[in-house]
Design goal:
The protein has 402 residues and is an alpha/beta fold. Helix content is 37%, strand content 12%. The protein contains 14 helices and 11 strands. The structure holds iron/sulfur cluster (2 copies). The site of one iron/sulfur cluster (SF4) has 14 residues, from helix 12. The site of one iron/sulfur cluster (SF4) has 13 residues, from helix 14.
């Protein structure tokens, strides 16, 4: 980012005088009021992250796809406070970049979350397997802390949890609690982007997780059920962080129907039980747009119209509902492959898409010898066509992927 751009951004986004309070909220047809845990600091809407004692602006910085260190400085200077990364992002370089850029800031001037994945899981059910040991998890956390140049993270998530069994899996619960006792994590939780309702219900019952990072957006068919369980978790004192708010980034595969970014983010935040969100930010323009949402959560008529029209389209976002997997004669991990499809066509994140294909060893069209498709999608996705499209990525030499 040029100095000029950076100065212009800071000028328009620094915390200022209090503005008008947020008006009525729209969540489907339901209108929700702000909770007493919400307030305005200067122009920025902040919410308490459950019972953690942390209070954050409603929009935080999803660092996953960012590789420009100047963005991190600009974000802090502007008023972003929370940074979200993971052990696996950019093969560890994402944590390294953050560690390098944050090392000169006072440790209490920001909060940081990282996610550590359990070692081994059943890709179809999401259940954790015996290779997911406490030691492997804690070793990865130590590597993450070293990359981040920090003694502790504010939030440590068990990454990508997608079944009740995985929530309750003792070695990982023990690892999370040990990390907290050792002072390597101030707060512990889990992230989920598949089977979220079951996962969050299990976490409420278990009573160990303090923060849940969950997919939540206007394109999820199960948004109503998910909204209710999010409210239950929030009322139980669990901090809720929203992700995947962009619902695939585009509604089609030709990059000509982009999701209205601000509308999608405001839709999520109109549920007052979502305490902050972590949209991915990769450039100055996106940062500015994100910041403007922090200041005013009310949906304009144009944004409401977009949500209404876009809700009726199939789009690129897979619910992760698993309805298709049992009926696929090859038992393909279709939700994960649809996620790869979304990364490639919605976000143009080819490397991320390839990582998912490599993980499942899909390097050729898995449907090519299937005369009739027995799997069906609740959203009406043409599964064989999407699988044929995305599997081509498995044959592209890695050096061509960005
Ligand atoms: S065509 Fe593909 S998705 Fe459909 S049943 Fe066969 S392998 Fe499964
Ligand atoms: S592809 Fe369709 S049926 Fe399968 S998990 Fe995704 S939304 Fe559900």
């Amino acid at each position: 980012m040029s100095d000029l751009n950076r100065r212009a951004f800071l000028k328009t986004s620094m915390l200022g005088a209090a503005g008008a309070f947020i008006g009525n909220r729209m969540l489907g047809s339901e209108k929700l009021s702000p909770l007493p845990t919400e307030k305005k600091q200067g122009k920025v809407v902040t919410r308490k992250l459950g019972n953690t004692g942390i209070e954050l602006p409603v929009v935080s910085f999803g660092v996953m796809r960012a590789d420009n260190p100047a963005l991190v400085h600009a974000a802090l200077d502007a008023g972003f406070r929370h940074f979200d990364t993971a052990h696996v992002y950019q093969n560890g370089n994402n944590e390294k970049m953050l560690g390098e850029e944050l090392k000169d800031y006072p440790r209490d001037s920001f909060t940081i979350a990282t996610k550590v994945p359990p070692e081994e899981k059943d890709r179809k059910t999401g259940n954790l397997l015996s290779g997911s040991t406490k030691k492997a998890f804690l070793d990865k956390l130590d590597t993450s802390l070293e990359r981040l140049k920090m003694d502790y993270v504010d939030i440590l998530y068990a990454h990508s949890i997608s079944s009740r069994q995985a929530v309750e899996f003792e070695p990982i619960l023990d690892a999370l609690q040990t990390a907290k006792k050792q002072g390597k994590a101030k707060h512990i939780g889990l992230s989920t982007h598949r089977n979220e309702v079951e996962v969050i219900e299990a976490a409420i019952e278990k009573g160990v997780h303090e923060v849940i990072l969950t997919a939540y957006n206007f394109k999820q068919d199960h948004q109503e059920k998910l909204g209710k369980v999010i409210a239950r978790a929030s009322k139980a004192g669990i901090g809720i962080v929203g992700m995947k708010s962009m619902a695939g980034g585009d509604l089609g595969k030709n990059s000509d129907q982009p999701v209205n970014f601000k509308a999608a983010l405001k839709w999520v935040l109109n549920n007052p039980h979502v305490h902050t969100t972590i949209p991915g930010i990769i450039n100055f323009k996106q940062m500015k747009e994100n910041f403007s949402v922090m200041e005013d959560l009310s949906l304009t008529s144009e944004e409401k119209n977009f949500i209404h029209a876009a809700s009726a389209k199939a789009g690129l976002y897979c619910n992760g509902c698993n309805t298709c997997t049992d009926s696929c004669r090859k038992g393909l991990p279709i939700p994960d492959l649809m996620r790869a499809h979304m990364y490639a066509y919605g976000y143009r994140e080819m490397k991320k898409a390839r990582e998912v294909l490599d993980e499942h060893q899909v390097h050729d069209n898995p449907c090519k010898d299937c005369a009739v498709c027995t799997a069906s999608c609740v959203k009406g996705f043409d599964l064989p066509a999407r699988l044929a499209d995305i599997s081509r990525m498995g044959q592209v030499p890695e050096e061509f992927l960005v």
